[in-house]
Amino acid sequence: CSPSTMAPSHALRCCKRALNWVPVLFINLVVGWSYYAYVVELCVYTIPNNAERISYLVIFHIFLAMFIWSYWKTIGSRPASPSKEFCLPRAEKDLFEREERAEAQQEILKKVARNLPVYTRTAGGAIRYCDHCQIIKPDRCHHCSTCEMCVLKMDHHCPWVNNCVGFSNYKYFVLFLAYASLYCAVICATVIQYFIKFWTKQLPDTHAKFHILFLFFVAALFFISILSLLSYHLWLVGKNRTTIEAFRAPVFTNGPDKSGFSLGFSRNVTEVFGDQAKYWIFPVFSSLGEGHSFVTRLVHIDPEQANSILQQNGKV
Ligand SMILES: [Zn+2]
Ligand SMILES: [Zn+2]
Question: What does it catalyze (predicted)?
Answer without folding.
Answer: L-cysteinyl-[protein] + hexadecanoyl-CoA = S-hexadecanoyl-L-cysteinyl-[protein] + CoA
